[in-house]
Amino acid sequence: xxxxMLFFWLVIFAITLVAEILTAQMVSIWFTCASAVCMILAGVxxxxxxxxxxxxxxxxxxxxxxxxxVKKIKKAPEKTNVDINIxxxxxVTEAIHNEHSKGRATVGxxxxxxVSSDGSVIEKGExxxxxxIDGAKLIVSK
Length: 142
What we know:
Elements: H1 3-23, H2 29-43, H3 48-73, E1 89-97, E2 102-107, E3 110-116, E4 127-134, E5 137-141
Parallel strand pairs: 3-5
Antiparallel strand pairs: 1-2, 1-4, 2-3, 4-5
């Protein structure tokens, strides 16, 4: 029995299992399973090249076989309260000049820094459409 390789696979197993538990994003489960198989191979004294080849093969096979399941399980990112403003109308409260880094608009009763999507100047009082949000800044168009 190759105790050095058995210990090596045990360490890989433990690290990847802990990473999987901490992230809960299915990022290392394939490595965990493959290292478990390789622990068995190390226990029966399989050559190291076979152990590493099996590790790569099992990881790749599990990744290919489970990818459709993982995509189905993972949800689309949830929209935040800010995202509900996309598509709404906003009123320009300070003229929007992208070049001068000036401009504010109000949407839903909240004042935001605003920039024009096409770089055009938008005067105070105009109604614009919110097309995106970048951090704390509305991206608007006429």
